[in-house]
Every structure is written in C-alpha cells, then in structure tokens.
Amino acid sequence: MAEQVHRLIYRSHSTVPRERRDEVLAEIFDVARSKNKKAGVTGALLISDNWFVQTLEGDETVVTELFEKIREDDRHTDVSVVESATVEDRVFSRWSMARISPIGRSDIPLHDVEGRIRPAAPDQPGREQQDLLTRMRNTIGADFV
To answer: What is the pTM of this model?
Structure first.
C-alpha cells in the first residue's frame, strides 16, 4: 500500500573548499543519516563539483522544518526549491540519506531507515528512482538527457 509523503527537492551552490570537501561531506552524511533516521526522513544528496541537489521525503512538517535548517547552513548558498509536493510513495524509501554521484551511482555504502547497511545502489534502479535521479542531475546540468 502506498503512503502519501511530502517530497522536497532543492539545489544549492557549495561553499566548501575543495581541500576540505571529503571531511565536510563525511560530517554532513553522518549527521544527516542519524537525524533523518530518527525523524523518518529519507532521501538522497547529489554532489557535483560545486553543486548540491537534495531530495527529502517524509512528513510535510518534518521535511519543511528540516529544509529551513538546511537553508540556513553556511556550507552552501543560492538555495532554491526545485520541487515541493505530496507524492504517493517514497522513491528513496530504503535510505535515510543516499549519496549519489553525478552519473547516478552511489559512491558509498547506503544505510536504510532501519539502520542496516546495504550495498551500493543497484546498477539498474527502479524506473521512478531513475527518473528522479535524472531530474536531480538535470537541475545542475550534470546530464544531457
């Protein structure tokens, strides 16, 4: 049975210096995974050069409040909402926060919302997930689709 959830997608410009990127991104993912799991939020973060594109899925109030905190983070600027809508089901239901490369591959192990470690995303994600990943990449010109 499908659940209705709120999905918010935003993009922003990273202010993280290249030489600190790995360290800062590791911190972002550690905090996001822990807090998102507790809040029932799932999603994915696409990182491409100096851009972030993130999808958040969950209860509308929780997602909106989380986004407002994210918007104030000084590790990025030019934050803009790409999409904000109620949808029938989560696309990233297994992951409290997946890290996705510009070409759509997961480049670190993914954690599902129950805290179990899952292997990297399959080479052939579901159609809905693939479509959403393509839309995320297209918002920053990472795809030519």
So the answer is: 0.78
Tens digit of each residue's pLDDT (9 = 90 or more) over 54-68: 999 999 999 999 999
Structure tokens belonging to residue 91: 């696309």
Neighbours of 95 (CB within 10 A): 25
Domains recognised in the chain with CATH numbers: 5-138 (3.30.70.100)
Smallest Cα–Cα separation from 47: which of 130, 8, 105? 105
* 139's tokens: 């918002």
In whole angstroms, what is the distance from residue 79 CA to residue 26 CA?
21
Is residue 140 a contact partner of residue 52, using CB atoms and an 8 Å limit?
no
CB burial of residue 62 (10 Å; 0-12, 13-18, 19+): middle
